[in-house]
Amino acid sequence: MPPTLAFLKGHISLRAISDSSAEIAVIGAGIAGIATAYYLCTAHGRQGIVLIDPRQPMSYTSAQSGDNYRNWWPHPVMSALTNDSIDELDRLARDTDNIFNMTRGGYVLASRARTDDEDHIHGAAIAARYPWLGSEIQTVIHIPRGGDISGQQLGTWMLERMRERGVTLLRGAVTAIAKDKRFALEIDRQHTLHAEQVINAAGPLANHIARLLGEALPVKNVFQQKVAFEDRLGAIPRDMPFSIDLDPKTLPWSDEERGLLEADPDMKWLTDVMPGGTHCRPEGGRHGKWVKLGWAYNTQSSEPQDDLANEPASDPQFPEIVMRGAAAFIPALHAYVESPPTRYSHYGGYYTMTDENWPLVGPMQTEDAFMVAALSGFGSMSACAAGKLCAAWACNAERPTYAMALSTHRYKDEDLMAELRSATSKGLL
Questions:
Q1: Are 191 and 5 in contact (CB under 8 A)?
Q2: Please, are residues 45 and 37 in contact by the beta-carbon 8 Å criterion?
Q3: Which residues contact 419 (CB under 8 A, 6 or more apart)?
Q4: pLDDT at 341 over 70
Q5: What is d(CA 403, CA 259) in angstroms, rounded to the nearest whole number?
Q6: Does the domain made of 107-143+220-353 have the CATH classification 3.30.9.10?
Q7: At residue 3, does pLDDT exceed 70?
Q8: Dihedral sign, CA of 64, 69, 74, 77?
Q9: What's the pLDDT score for residue 12?
Q10: 9-18, 150-159, 320-329, 409-418 — which is least confidently predicted?
Q11: Which one of 13, 249, 258, 277 has the fewest CB atoms closer than 10 angstroms to its CB?
Q12: Which of 226, 246, 424 is nearest to 328 (CA)?
């Protein structure tokens, strides 16, 4: 009898393996891996699926998600992907009586630059419709197809449906992979699981899994942070859409603060022009009291350890930095610059991304190996479509027209890559 592998307690019941083989091994139990396994068994009827992760499902980067969604992107390929994903979210919300709390409040994109687009909002209409925005905002773009979800609830629901269809959840780390006619996956350096196909959904460890297959992926990991706080002053309307300041900005330091920062080589960067993308939304619905802020201004990559040890420390200055940035377009938040929130949560996670900020979904170089990787900061919003697409690749089933562009095949398309390199925006928010 093969060795027994320890299975995860949690959303899926404790189980034991009767033999050490599987049809498909999905490596990574974040929302992307979960969605892929879900569509493998529900859309394609695949059996013998094992979902492998050393951690609890959705406890790594998926737990740090902003849980927002939008179909606004600078390129139609990404718009198509997210539209398909939102279609799936809409369908699942209807089928589950909205168990994952999908809202449809839209997005508000704010800028101090005046545009001439007829569908953009200008002048007095901004103050009338979006009174929380500062008077210097000259243009607002309203994205109606946007909102937020509970990614944890969505993933939990998918896990429960997968359990009913015989998907096995394995608690362990993949420490080696060999390939002959089948894959042999070493688990925790002591057990072996054989599989016909492998799917790399390992999030920040996607390149680690690729290296076990003798490959390298064009991805990097960039640590980004968020803060949620109790809005004791009622600065943010509870029905405010997800609001984003698109403009680069210089933070409003006093002369004394600026002098101190400029004199410190490690802090001087805080006086430079910083990128746009500061964002804010209410957290907890109409009757909640919390607000969530984010700003993906970090550009330095840092690789996680294979064992997930030694994670980057969150910058203790981030809450003040992001509050100052958000107050630049939502004036009511200035009150928290002077009197910081007393109850808040500061957290961070990796954006695993390509240089062009598009995901990698499709076949790897190794035969019968596939990936759903580099979902950057849009994992929750794109997981349904990305997981469905990866499942279609693995089953050699019909795929959408953009499938090739989201795979490694795009790097052979010189025109597309030139277009992406010259783009002024990569949709990083």
A1: yes
A2: no
A3: 75
A4: yes
A5: 51
A6: yes
A7: no
A8: positive
A9: 41
A10: 9-18
A11: 13
A12: 246
> What sign does the CA torsion over 36, 39, 41, 47 have?
negative
CB-facing half-sphere around the CA of 329: CA atoms within 13 A: 31
Residue type, 263: A
The domain spans of the chain are: 21-63+151-219+356-422, 107-143+220-353
What mean pLDDT is predicted for residues 176-202? 95
Topology of domain 21-63+151-219+356-422 in CATH is FAD/NAD(P)-binding domain (3.50.50)
Residues in the chain: 429
Give the β-pairing of 290-294 and 278-283: antiparallel
Q: Are 227 and 345 in contact (CB under 8 A)?
A: yes
pTM equals: 0.92
CA–CA distance, 83 with 64 (Å, rounded to integer): 23
- Separation between Cα atoms, residue 162 and residue 238, nearest integer Å: 35
The helix/strand/coil state of 277 is coil
**98-127 per-residue burial string, b: 16 or more CB within 10 A, e: under 16:** bebebbeebbbbbbeeeeeeeebbeeeebe
Give helix 76-95 / helix 151-164 axis angle, nearest 10°: 70
Token readout for 320 is 């003040």
Name the pairing type of β-strands 369-373 and 191-200.
parallel
Name the amino acid, one letter, at 123: G
Cα distances (Å, whole numbers) of residue 220 to 62, 145, 331, 358: 17, 29, 35, 12
The string of pLDDT tens digits covering residues 19-68 is 588 999 999 999 999 999 999 999 999 999 999 999 999 988 887 888 89
Strand, helix or coil at 77?
helix
Nearest to 231 by CA among 363, 327, 336: 336
240 vs 252: CA distance, rounded Å: 24
CA dihedral (400, 106, 344, 284) positive or negative: negative
Position 313 pLDDT exceeds 90: no
- What is the amino acid identity at position 56? Q
The amino acid sitting at 270 is L
| pLDDT at residue 305, as a whole number | 66
pLDDT in tens, 226-260: 999 999 999 999 999 999 999 999 998 999 999 99
Give the CA distances from residue 406 to residues 35, 40, 372, 416, 417, in Å, rounded to whole numbers and listed in that order.
17, 19, 10, 11, 12
